[in-house]
Specification:
Elements lengths: L3 H31 L2 H14 L4 H11 L8 H8 L8 H16 L3 H5 L5 H10 L8 H10 L10 H9 L12 H18 L3 H13 L5
Helix pairs in contact: 1-11, 2-3, 2-5, 2-8, 4-5, 7-8, 9-11
Length: 216
């Protein structure tokens, strides 16, 4: 477990960054109340595009394909991503996922995300669904956080590395199974409770400590 000194340091750092963190979380809350179906789909695609390259590249990539996201084919989207994203073939993930959501759910994204009463089932739908490409538990948590859902940890290598450095968890490697993900998330939640902040706030605080800015 984290030392008393580390806890005091984190609390002090949180005080410095609290305003910026809460401003970003307020944007997510606004999205939950106001985002339409297209905006929610864009956020899902942003998280698909962010995996392995980070949010800055993910956002640039989303902007590159935004106007063709609803109707563009694999080749067109791949061409848009070429030179912007390290893996332009993520176009396959985008198109497969979009067409699945269109064919099975009519792209009624707000209705879909609010159709789940159980938070675990909601995340599992996006993380473990073979027809939603490029998302695991980490990016599914990222997606849900970004549209205003609370209680999920985004356990990427930055956050997991910081949790390990602080002594909250035993391994610096991101979890690769659902069981380990849930276990790590529970430990992080307990640590957030000890600090007196929300798990989303701790997530963003740890990420910013590693990367130097508040993530989207």
């Amino acid at each position: 477990m984290a030392s008393l000194e580390a806890i005091q340091e984190l609390r002090s750092l949180y005080t410095e960054k609290e305003e910026a963190i809460k401003a970003q979380l307020a944007e997510f809350e606004y999205a939950r109340a106001n985002a339409d179906d297209t905006r929610i789909l864009e956020e899902l695609c942003f998280c698909i595009l962010t995996s392995a390259v980070g949010p800055k590249v993910g956002m640039k990539s989303l902007h590159a394909i935004q106007d063709v996201l609803l109707e563009g084919g694999k080749d067109e989207i791949s061409e848009r991503l070429d030179g912007v994203h390290k893996y332009p073939d993520r176009a396959d993930y985008i198109v497969h996922t979009r067409d699945y959501l269109k064919n099975d759910y009519g792209l009624r994204m707000r209705q879909l995300v609010y159709s789940f009463d159980n938070p675990e089932e909601l995340r599992d739908f996006f993380a473990l669904n073979k027809n939603i490409k490029g998302l695991g538990l980490t990016q599914a948590s990222h997606f849900l956080r970004n549209i205003g859902f609370k209680g999920y940890a985004v356990l990427d290598r930055n956050v997991v590395g910081m949790l390990h450095k602080l002594g909250v968890i035993d391994s610096p490697k991101p979890p690769t199974s659902k069981k380990r993900y849930i276990d790590t998330e529970e430990k992080m939640q307990n640590f957030a409770d000890e600090l007196g902040i929300g798990i989303e706030e701790l997530d963003m605080l740890l990420w910013s400590m590693k990367r130097g800015y508040i993530p989207k």
